[in-house]
């Protein structure tokens, strides 16, 4: 199950905003001070790891 979660985080567009191309502002789901829930670009490796660790506790 954890492998599937890792693949989901690595390959997913679930955390990507659908706003204007090149937009660098978080949408109303996030405060500028963080945490940011939606990203206007592909996730970097540190962001993927952070998301994985947050979701990992919900996977058996």
Order of helices and strands: HH
- Please give the count of helices: 2
Q: How would a textbook summarize the main sheet?
A: none
Number of DSSP E strands: 0
The percent of residues in helical segments reads: 25-40%
Structural category is mainly alpha
Name the assembly state.
Answer: single chain
Task: Provide the residue-averaged pLDDT.
Answer: 81
> Uncertain spans, ≥5 residues at pLDDT below 50?
none
| Overall 3D shape | globular
| Number of separate structural domains | 1
The termini sit apart by: 7 Å
Strand residue content: under 5%
Q: If you compute it from the alpha carbons, what radius of gyration comes out, rounded to the nearest whole angstrom?
A: 12 Å
Task: Please describe what this structure looks like.
By secondary structure, this protein is mostly helical. The chain has one domain. The protein has two helices and no strands. It has helices at residues 2-11, 45-56. Helix 1 (2-11) runs antiparallel to helix 2 (45-56). The longest helix has 12 residues, at 45-56. The relative contact order is 0.23. The model has no long low-confidence stretch (mean pLDDT 81).
């Amino acid at each position: 199950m954890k492998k599937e979660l890792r693949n989901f985080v690595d390959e997913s567009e679930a955390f990507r905003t659908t706003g204007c191309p090149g937009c660098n502002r978080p949408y109303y789901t996030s405060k500028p001070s963080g945490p940011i829930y939606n990203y206007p670009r592909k996730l970097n490796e540190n962001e993927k790891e952070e998301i994985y660790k947050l979701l990992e506790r919900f996977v058996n």
